[in-house]
Amino acid sequence: MEKTVNHKAWFLVLPVLVLVAFSAVIPLMTVVNYSVQDTFGNNVFFWAGLEWFQQVLASPRIHDALMRQILFSAIILAIEVPLGIFVALNMPKRGFWASLCLVLMALPLLIPWNVVGTIWQIFGRVDIGLLGHTLAKLGISYNYTANAFDAWVTVIVMDVWHWTSLVALLAYAGLQSIPDAYYQAAKIDQASRWKVFRYIELPKMQGVLLIAILLRFMDSFMIYTEPFVVTGGGPGNATTFLSIDLVKMAIGQFDLGPAAAFSIMYFLVILLISWVFYTVMTNLDKREGI
Amino acid sequence: MARITLSNLAHSYLPHPKGPEDFALKQMDHVWEDGGAYALLGSSGCGKTTLLNIISGLLRPSQGRVLFGDRDVTDAPTAERNIAQVFQFPVVYDTMSVRDNLAFPLRNRRMDAAYIRARVEAIGRMIGMEAVLDRKARGLTADAKQKISLGRGMVREDVNAILFDEPLTVIDPHMKWELRTQLKTLHRELSHTMIYVTHDQTEALTFADKVVVMYDGRVVQMGTPQELFETPAHTFVGYFIGSPGMNLLDARIEGNVAHVEGCAVPLGAGYGPVGGRAQIGIRPEFARLTSAEGLPVRLRRVEDVGRHKIVRAEFFGREINIIAEEGAGIGPDMTRVAFRPDKINVYSDDWRVAPAGRLGEAA
Amino acid sequence: MALELIGVEKRVGAQTHIAPTTLTLEKGTMNVLLGPTLAGKTSLMRLMAGLDVPTEGRILWHGADVTGMRVQDRQVAMVYQQFINYPSISVYDNIASPLRLQRKSRAEIDRAVRETAEMMKLTPMLARKPLELSGGQQQRCALARALVKGAGLVLLDEPLANLDYKLREELRAEIPKIFEASGAIFVYATTEPEEALLLGGNTATLWEGRVTQFGPTPQVYRQPRDAITARVFSDPPMNFLPVTKAGPRLMFGEGQTAPATGSLAGIADGRYLAGFRANHVEIAPRPGAVLEFDCRLAVTEITGSETFVHLHHGTDRWVGLVHGVHQIEPDTRMPVWLDPAFVYVFGENGALVAPAPYAVAA
C-alpha cells in the first residue's frame, strides 16, 4: 500500500547520518588516504598510487594468512552449523526445561572475547589447566604453545564452544515458528524422522540459517581477540589469521601504507564473500519458487 | 473405511474435574456411519475442535472409548489410526513439487510406483491442478496450497476417515463455494467417511449429509439440513441456523394451544404437560404480517434486503422477526403477526418437546 | 455542509487506481461503497480520509479545499477490517485515547467514554484489555473509539468482514442506530450487496476503480444503470441470457417467448441481453412465471434457511436462490421458471435499455 509522502521525515534521519559519518565514513577515508601515500614521518606524505596494493597482493606472508583464514572459517562453519542445528532439534520445545536450555545456551555468548581467550588459555595449559593437565595424565601429548595442530584444535574448539549457541538459538527460533499442524500432518503421512527434517524443518529454518551462516562467516573471518590471547598467532605463524597479521603490520612494524591497503582489501573480500553467500542462498529460494 | 463409535465419551482439560462445567466435552454416545459426510458445527469454544482432536488421536479423552469399526483406538497414536487430516491453514511441503506433495503419503507407505503415478494424476485432476503438478509448491497462492492439502488428504484409498478442520478459512470468499461444492463431489466419488469441522453454517449444511450441531460441549442435534431448519431440537439450533434465527416466545402450553401474554396461538399438534420454561419457536419464514388475526405487535423497522424484507416487530418487549416477500406491501393496518401452526415447535428448558399427536389425535 | 470529490483521480505509475470521480456526500448521510475485492473501495476511502493525495482533482470539506491537508488535521475517524485497538491499555483508555489527544477535560472525557460505551454495549468490559474480548466486542471497541471523537467523517472499511456470521448479523443491525445518533457522514465499504441494502442510505457501486452509479440504495439496486452495476449489486451475480425483441414479443434464448409488457414494451426491435437475479428463479411453477428453461443442476448449497441452486443452461451458468432447504441430486435435469416482469434488458454495450417491469412498478 502507498504511504503518505512527507519530506520532513528526512530531518529525523539526520542525526544518524552525522553519527555514521563520524564513526564509519571519516575513519574509512583516513584509511583510504593512508593506502595511497607514503611517509617518512614528520607528517610529510608522498603520493604512492597503487604501490601498496601491489605489494600486499604479492606478499607470500599475506597469502599464507589468507589461506589459514579461509581454512579456519570453513572448518568453523562445517562444525558449528550442523552442530547448532543438531542441538536445536534436541532442545525441549516448551516448559521449564526449554527456558533452562535457553539460558544455558546464551551463557557463552555473554562472555567477552578476551575473557573467553583467557579461560581457554588457562584451561589448556599443561601445567595448571584442567584440560591440558587431564590430557597429559591420559598420556595424550598436547601442547598448544608448541604444536601447530594442537594450537588449531584449541582455537577451533574454543570458537565452537563460544559460538555454536548462536547458531543453535537461531535455528531454535526457526523451529519454534513451525506450526504443530505440520508435525501432525507428517505423522499422518507416516513421514520418517529424516523426511520431517528434510522437508519441514530444514526449509522452515532456511531463513534464519542464512543469517547464522553469514554472521558466523563474517565473525570467524575477522577473528582476532581469542587466538591472540591464547596463542598470540603461534606457534610460529600457525594461527596468525588475517587480522592478527594486520595488527602486526600496522602497530608492530608501523607500516601504515601497506596496512591500510591490506585493510581495504580485507574489507572488500568480506563484503564480496558475504554478497556471494547472500545471493546464492536467496537465489536458491527463488529458483525453488518457480 | 470404518464406522466411528464414540462410547460414553467425555473430556476435561483439568486433571480432576468436579462438576459438568469443568468438562469441555460433556458425556456423549454417537455412532457415525461408514462412508457418511458429517459436519461438526458450532461457534468457537463449543468443543468441536476438542472432539476432532480426540478422533484424530491428538488428545486422549478423560473418559469413554473411541472405536473405528470394531477396533478400540482410544489409546492408539495418530499414526496408527490410519486417518487423513486437512488443517485450517495449508500444510504443504514447500520444497517439493505439487506431484511429490500428493505422492508423499503413498511413497512413505512404499506403494507401487506405477500405482502412485496413476493415483496422483487422478487426484490432481479431481482438485483441478493437473496443469501445475510439476511446479514447486512454494510460491503458489493460499487457495492452491489448500487444494494440495485437500488432495494429500484424499490420496490414500484405505483411510478410516478424512478429517477437515475449518479447511476454507484462508480461501478467498468468491472461491469458497467452488471448493465446498468440489468437496461434496469428492465425497460422492470417494465415499470415505468424512468429518468436517466448521463454524460456518453454509459450509456445514452444503457439505454434510448429517450435521452435528455443538453447543457448550454438547451435541445438541444431529440431523439433516432439513431437520435443523424445520425441527430444531434445541433453541440454540433455532438461533444458529438460519438468518435471522428462530423467534422464541415464552408460553403456556395447553393441548394444541399456546398462551402467549394472554393471547392464544393455535399449534399444529397436541402436547402433553410441558414442564420447566416453556417456549414456542417459529422461524421468520413461517410468520406473516396481517391486519386481522394473530398476536398484536408494534412495527419497529422494515429492512429491504432485496430478495425479501425483514420486518422487525415488537411484542411485549420481545423482538419478532418476520420475512415478507420482496413485493409485499406493508400497510399501516398490518399490526398483527400470524404463525403457521404446523411450523411451530415447542420447547421446554431449551429442548424441543415432541408433540403427543397430530391435531385431532390429541387427547 | 458536505464532503465533495471533484474530478478526483488517483494514478500510481501507469496504473489508474481511481478513475476520475465526482461525488457529493451530504451531511448526515450513510454512504455505502459497494464492490468486489480490489474494486478501489479502500483507495477511494484513503483519498477521502486524506491518507493519500489525489493525482488530479479537488476535495472539498464544507466548501473549503482540503485536497492536500494531512489526515491529522482533518476531522476523520476510520475503522478497519482488522480489529485495531491498543492491546496494552484497557477498553476505557482505548475509547478515551482520541479525546486525550484533543486535550479535553477529565470530566468531559469520562462522560463521553461512558456514553459511547453504553451505546456500543461495552459498559461491563471497560476495565478489560481488548484481547480479552470476543471478536465482536473488539470491533465494538474500535467502533467506539472512532465514534467518540465526534468526527464529521466516519470511514468504515469492511468492519464486519472478519466476524462470524451471527456476530455480523448482530452488529450489522446496530450500525444504522449509531449512525443516526452521530449525525456524521458515514462511508461504509463492503463487498456484500445485502449489507448495502440493510444499511440503506446511498450506494456507490465500484468496478475496477470506477464509480459506476451513485444514488439511493434501493434505486441503484432495482434500477441499475448498466450490466456491471447490476452484477456488482447482486449476490450471487446476476444471470444473463440473450433475448430478441420482435414486435410485441420477446424471445428468450431458444424459443421461450413472452409478450413484451410494461417497461419492456417500448424498446426497439433487436438483439439484447436479458438479466435476472438469482432470487427470481423459481424451481416450481408459479403464476406469472411463464418462461420455462431446461437446465441441469450442477450442485446445491444450503445456507440454513435458503438454498442456492447452481444451474447449467446450455453454456450459460446460472444461480438460483430459493427459500427453504432443498437437497437435489447433482446432475439432475430440471426445469426452472422465470416471470418476465423480473427481467432487465441491457444493450450490447452493457447499458440498461429497460429496467425490469416490477422495479418500475415498485
From TrEMBL, chain A:
It is a multi-pass membrane protein. This is Sugar ABC transporter permease. CDD domains: TM_PBP2. Signal peptide: none annotated. The keyword Iron does not apply. Keywords: Membrane, Transmembrane, Transmembrane helix, Transport. GO terms for cellular component: plasma membrane. The chain crosses the membrane at residues 12-34, 70-89, 95-116, 151-175, 196-218, 259-280. GO terms for biological process: transmembrane transport.
From TrEMBL, chain B:
One of its GO terms (molecular function) is ATP binding. InterPro entries: AAA+_ATPase, ABC_transporter-like_ATP-bd, ABC_transpr_FbpC, ABC_transpr_MalK/UgpC-like, Mo/tungstate-bd_C_term_dom, NA-bd_OB-fold, OB_MalK-like, P-loop_NTPase. It holds the Pfam family OB_MalK. SMART domains: AAA. One of its GO terms (cellular component) is ATP-binding cassette (ABC) transporter complex, substrate-binding subunit-containing. Gene3D superfamilies: 2.40.50.100, Nucleic acid-binding proteins (2.40.50.140), P-loop containing nucleotide triphosphate hydrolases (3.40.50.300). Keywords: ATP-binding, Cell membrane, Membrane, Nucleotide-binding, Transport. Residues 4-241 form the ABC transporter domain. PROSITE patterns: ABC_TRANSPORTER_2 (PS50893). The keyword RNA-binding does not apply. Belongs to the ABC transporter superfamily. This is ABC transporter ATP-binding protein. It comes from Paracoccus siganidrum.
UniProtKB/TrEMBL annotation, chain C:
Pfam families: ABC_tran. Keywords: ATP-binding, Cell membrane, Membrane, Nucleotide-binding, Transport. GO terms for cellular component: ATP-binding cassette (ABC) transporter complex, substrate-binding subunit-containing. One of its GO terms (molecular function) is ATP binding. Residues 3-233 form the ABC transporter domain. CDD domains: ABC_Carb_Solutes_like. SUPFAM superfamilies: MOP-like, P-loop containing nucleoside triphosphate hydrolases. Belongs to the ABC transporter superfamily. This is ABC transporter ATP-binding protein. The lineage of its organism: Bacteria, Pseudomonadati, Pseudomonadota, Alphaproteobacteria, Rhodobacterales.
